[in-house]
Target: Sugar phosphate isomerase/epimerase
Amino acid sequence: MHDLPQPFTRRQFLKAGSAAAALCALPLSFSLAAETASRRAGLQLYTLRDWMQVSVPGTLKLVAGVGYKELEFAGYFDQSPKQIRKLLDDEGLSAPSAHVPLTTFQESVNKVIDTAQAIGHKYVVVPYLTPEQRGSSIDVYKKLADDMQRWGEACKRADITLAYHNHDFEFQRVDGELPYDILLNNTDPKAVSFELDLYWTVKAGVDPVQLFNQHPGRFKLFHVKDMDKKGEFADVGTGTIDFGAIFKHADKAGLAHQFVERDQTQDKLATIQQGYKALTQILRQR
Model:
């Protein structure tokens, strides 16, 4: 999920904002029905990183207009924790989770905790390892597991949960071992949880349900991200991943929150609208 931002103009942002404002103007009965049905439908804001660069307040207002109630942050774009919290409160939003760079944890887990408490995050997530951070030895993941155990214990004392977000490389063998297995098996479930990115898991040829059966209760967060027939990104509900079958096992997974995400999209408004609609339907069927 860490490609370079796509070009995005202020005019495009304002146009998208106007569309969201129109959504807000729908009849009250429709709005209440949508809110009840999708009270836990979340959005990973990395999907809208271009918009966040233009205007954090405008982006959050737009997202609320679409109908989302829960957000997962991927950067605060020069806004202070106090400012972020106020913006969320003003729009009737909450942010139960945030992606926090590995280097930030390494610098100070206490700072991560302080920020999370100020904003209201209940989960803080290690989102990605760069190729340099991964290195070429399985020992990298063994050390990371030790570090996450320590950070997770500190987070737990503050009533926050540490989680790890996967891509596909964690399912590729290094020195004969799977990095994901190392992280799962060398951390305490009471201290470290996992955010399963359904796209990258399926992309790696791994069955999410099999992971739930092997490690019940470990997967507190999902990234709901779809795949087209070519194996590329697709709007949720338009691709090939059977989310209904996966969500039938959500209780075994330990799922608490789920976030729509699409790493790259040419029409961000259409993507988050479709994601909201599809995730709402999935949650209704749980």
